[in-house]
## 1
Amino acid sequence: MGRRRKKRKLVARRPRKTIPSVFQCPNCGKIAITVELNKPTNGVKHAIVRCGNCGLYAEMDVPEIFQNVDVYGRFLDGFYSGTLEYDFITPVKEEKTEELA
Ligand SMILES: [Zn+2]
């Protein structure tokens, strides 16, 4: 009997196109930074960076060609050099049960 198992699971390829969508937070150290990119207008798009753990929040305008990882890089630069304007917002917890006070 020709039993053939597809070995797909054993392929350890790491396509470079896979861009991580969650990054490490420079403030709390958790891998909880997400980058949101809005549609570009006149070659510029608005990016929102936030940490799901500590609530670090920053907005910036970046060139249209920027991807999440580029925004994150600029975010880190700004954070460490003190040029980034950022804030803290309360992280939204994704809980299914709602507590009604
Ligand atoms: Zn954080």
## 2
Amino acid sequence: MPDSNSNKLTNLELIACDRCKNPFMIQKGEKLRKQEIDEEIVCENCIKLEERKKLLASSVIESQNEIKTSIKNYEDKIESAETQEIKNAFYEKIKTQSEILTKSVELLKKIEETNDEKYIEEYKNLFEKLKKESS
Ligand SMILES: [Zn+2]
């Protein structure tokens, strides 16, 4: 009976990840195939990181849309506000929401640029904080 496990092992080779430079196992031939189509050779960890980044970025974008909607609502309320005092209160709310929006844009940029798992956790916490501020 052929030993399928050792067979699998001999079909693997150790190479360095294009992003984190950590060594990992890849099917023999896979590296050549990827190089031919000029594809990045990325380890499992980096793929997972990429997925987490995408997930987090899409929640940030979702929140940004909510903030934009609420700014629009405040603008409508200003138009129909009866006193200057009420108007000012809505202006203040718009100001706060805009500041949060700016922060979230910066956060989005950081998420896209990072290649480090530990920052994703940090950005996630920052985002939770922002969400609390905006509600
Ligand atoms: Zn990697």
